[in-house]
Structure formats: structure tokens, C-alpha cells
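Researcher: Quick one. two chains, 685 residues in total.
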Amino acid sequence: MKAYLGVDVGSVSTNLVLMEENGESIAGDVYIRTLGRPIEAIQEGMKKLSQQVEGQDIEVRGVGTTGSARNLSGVIVGADVVKNEITAHATAAINVEPTVQTIMEIGGQDSKIILLRNGIVTDFAMNTVCAAGTGSFLDQQAARLNIPIEEFGEYALLSKYPVRIAGRCSVFAESDMVHKQQMGHKTEDLIAGLSQALVRNYLNNVGKGKEILPPVFFQGGVAANEGIKKAFEEELGFEVIVPRYFHIMGALGAAILAKNEVEKNGIKTKFKGFGVSRINYTVSSFECKGCPNLCEVININVDDSLICRWGGRCGKWEYNE
Amino acid sequence: MKFSFPHMGTSHVAFKYLLENLGYEVINPPTPSKKTITLGARYSPEFACMPFKVLLGTYMEVLDKGAEAIVTSGGIGPCRAGFYGVLHEKILKDMGYDFKMIILDPPLYDIKEFFNTVSLLRPKKIGWRGFINVVKDSWAKLCALDEMEKEANLVRAYEVNKGDTTKKVNEIIEVIDAASTRKEIMGLQEKSISMLHEVPQNKLRKPLKIGLIGEIYVVIEPFMNYDIERLLGEMGVIVHRSIYVTEYTRHTIWDRKAEDYIKEAAKPYLELMIGGHGVNSVGETILYAQDGYDGVIQLAPFTCIPEIVSKSILVKVSEDYGIPVLTLHIDEQTGEAGIRTRIEAFLDLLHQKRSLSGKEGMAK
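Model:
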């Protein structure tokens, strides 16, 4: 079977997907936590993915990477296309539903809104100064309330009287939650209130001045949270669609982009094979003292030989084998 | 007396020439770096904009190197940058630095004051005629630098080998810096353009065209904007910068009407003078749209009121004229990765838009 690999390494999760050539079926997918170690996460993900498709005759025709570690993962797996998250998410959504007009994506550390008209991206925005309302913050609050993050959304749905939480800033949101908690509000009301606060924050900051028209797709890890979905629907006044592969849409988009790239240019993939999970990568860094910028330059080695280097502002250290 | 001044793009080459030929010793301002912003941010009010912090850092660096006088520009508001010189002086003197601050306010505001300040710069041994000649030569250098940079933005989008244009630009800056006779100086513009044309180009490309607007310091100083002109150029984009030091000087010193066409364009959306380059940002976006540009990038220092106001208006302008606008807020906390991601996505958007409208190759 011919397939395309998409890899999305973000701040919180690392997602891999093997998309079949028809662009619709998924041969395998992996969603794991990055845990601050992107290289290990990619290797772990590749291992899991190869186990999932074990015994099948898979021929990877192209590879795309996206996410904040897109350049790094591109080097590790051998990518044919390295794309930003916005284009990747939009590509995947259009593939599922060509008439989609709005994509709301909330990930671990950033959130974005993408507007599409007639199948092309016409505008987008990302959160600028504040990470309130992203997955990491929800994680943190779930841990504080001692509720597994997977159940967080269900709690919100139980609430009849959501508490109003100040959502402008995650630090203040937390103090406000503690305050309301100490006053005796029920946990589900707190969680529902928090969901509403996050939605307000998202719409006022990221979605500011943007025309949100249906169909609206809600994707990214936070879309698993039913409470947030409901809060969005209440605020917007219409249905919000959570696509089937909402959690791996970035990786899926990267796979589609890889397919387009390979087919358009008739190129042979640079894919390094599933064996990359066994390669010994080492990373070292140093501070360049060439000028007062003191750039931190990163070396990526396989055994003892340098395969890639970046991080300098002036470009003198850039290297890619 | 040892003089210094702010670092702004390549203009230091001309300012250094001016002051040296008036007989002063010059402490060249260093290219702003992480060190500059770290120093500046430490002693600045937290909510001052990034230009304030970088300038303060620069002044500290040059004072530590022995500068005894700093020449800077003032302003007539409502943008608070008009008071930066005064406030910088107060902060630095509180810190114990001993120096002279010379602030040039626009002459059209108070012409007598302007000439008094300029006279301070003219040493007694140089007559007015000699003084004017030195100013003229420095101005010619400044013009050569600006024209060279404009041309470089056209060449870079077509360069065959990534980085060639920037290397050539650095060579040219040295040539401009070294020129000392009037004959040499007057030929600089032509010479630098022809040097740029030595860069191998692939003219078959159909580059996107992007206009760069926003607050003057973050637009002109590459350190502030992550070298966005080079970044975009090396991604194959023709960048047109909305403002150059020569144009700004011309407008503030002797030709108040030089920017009237921009204000006229902005009029249906914004008639009020809101300070800084707020009105310009609105007007220029409209002009870029009319000239067939694919998109506009607005650079705004975080907390810059004029640019915040124009940003809100640009939403409507963008819709009315069908020109995509990307706003980048810049401060010392800005992560380069975030800027890159947004720029990459913006270029994808522009490419898609162009291929859909079948406009490929039509942009001027």
C-alpha cells in the first residue's frame, strides 16, 4: 500500500499519521506527549506507528512535517515538505469539508483562527501575548482540581449554574477560580465557568474582528473537551463541528501537503524509513561569541557526525547535510 | 567632544561622515543586539515601547565607550516618542552618566529652536558655507544608502544563490562608508546600483509583492524586525518599505507636504492626526492595494497606540480593497519562531489568493 506520512510535533503533543494514497483512509495514527523531548517523541511515535502497520506492505511515498518542531522533525524523518501549522490545519480541514469557512484550533501553547472562503485561506490570527485558554492551562487546572483531563469536559456538561471566571489572563483566571472555589461553588460549575471564560478570551483576542461563519471546525487537542465545544456553540449561536481526526489534523494536513508536493514535482521521497527510531541522535549547543547577540547554536549529530545545525541570527552556522 | 547617535538601519554611515567632517570624534553606535535590549529593558519603564528600550540600551553602550554627546531626534507628538530624548536623558543622568543630549525637534514646529540646535553642532572654525557642504555630502551618502536598499529589495527576490544580495549590500556599505571626495560621493548612487546588478538573478520568477508599513523605527532597523526585508526577500518576495530615513527627513525638515498624498488616501477612513505613522499605515495600505501589491505587513511595537488604532482600521481597509494585512506586534518578548510561522502562513495565503485570481505575473 502506498501512503504518506505526516508528522506534527508541537509543544505538548506529537502526532503522526499515515494517510493512504486516496487521501481519505488512515492506515495508522499516533498521538503522544512531547514532554519537552521532541527527538525522543518522534522516535517513539515512529516506533508506535510502525508497530500499528506491522505486517502490511507500506510504501511511504512522501513525508510532511509541521508544528513548532517542524524543522527538527523534518531533519529526523527526512521530510519532503516542511510547513507551518496554519497551512497544515487548513489543508486538512478543506480535505474533510471543502466548504469549511472557519477553523478554530486550540493546541497546547497556542491557539489560532483561520478564515477560509471558497476553499482558500483568506485571513488568520494566532494568540499574541497570552496563552490563557490553551491546552497547557487546562491541563494545569485539571491537575489542580485532581480531575483527569479526559473527564474535564464531561464535568462542564453537568453544570447547571456556571460560575463567572475572569478569563483575561491565565494567572488571574486561576486566582479567580481559587476564590470561587473557596466560596463553596461546585467543581462542575467552576469547570463550566472556566470553559466559558476561555471561549470568551479566545473570541475576544484571537477571533477579534474576524467574521466567524459556519461551517466552523474546532480542532486541536482541546477540541476533545465537550465543555469547551458547548461553550463555543452557546457563544456563537450555531453548531461547531469537531472533525473525526480533530487531534491529528495538523499531521494529516502535513501528509496531504507531502502528497501534493511529491505528485506535483514528481520527486522521490527523502523519507529515512521507520528505522530512525533506532538511530542515536545527540544534540549539543553552544553560545556563539562572534557578536553581542550571543546566539545559541544547536548541533544535531548522528553518532559522531553532524547532520544539521541552526540557531544563529546571521546564518553563518547554518548547515544541513 | 565625542559624539554618538542612535543606530537606524544603515544611516549611521552618513551620520558618522557628517560629524567626523565637522571635526568631531564619533563613537559609532553598535548594531543593536541582545545585549542592547537587555540593558535598555532593565532601565526602561516596562510599558515603554521597544524602540525606547533599544535606544536607551544603545545610549548606554556608546556612553560606556566614551561618548560625551548624543544627537537624537525629537518630535511634536501625539506619539510619545517625541519625549523619548528628554526622558532618556533623565534616566541616563539618574544612572550617573555625564553627557550632553542634543535633541533636534522638527524645524517646521519651531524654526528658531532648530537653528539654535544645529548651530550648536557647527564648530566655530567651520564657516556656514563649509558646514552646508558637509551636510550636502552626508545627505548624498544617505540618499545613496536608501536607493541602494530599495534596489536590493528588488534584486533579492530574484537572486539565484540565496544570500548573494545581502553579501553585496555589505560590500556596498563599505564603499559608501569609504567615499571621501565630492566626486566619489556624487557617483555613489549609480555605482551601488550597478554593483547590485552584478548579483546573478533569475528573472523568470514571479515574486509576490509585499508592502511593509508601520512605526518608523521597527520598520527601518533590521534588529527590531528580525531582518524582515532579508527574510522575505530570501523567501522570494519583493518587499517595498514604506519609509526611509531620507523621506522622513525631507518631510519633517523642509517639505511638510511630501506625505500629503498618503494622508489624502487615508482620509475616507481616518482624518485625524493620531501621531507616529498611524495615518500613514492606513494610507499606504490603500496605495499598495491600488498598485497591485499582493499583501501588506504592518510592524507595530507592542503598546504603540498609533499602530493599534490603525490596526483596527486596517481590518476594514483590507476588506474593502481585498488586500490581506498581517500585523506583527514586536517587543523584547517576541519569539522569532512565532514571527516566522505567521510570515510563512501569510505567504501561503498570498500565493493561494494569487493563483485563484489568475493574477500571476500581473503584479507590477
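Residues 360-364 of chain B have pLDDT under 50 and may be disordered.
Researcher: Thanks, that's what I needed.
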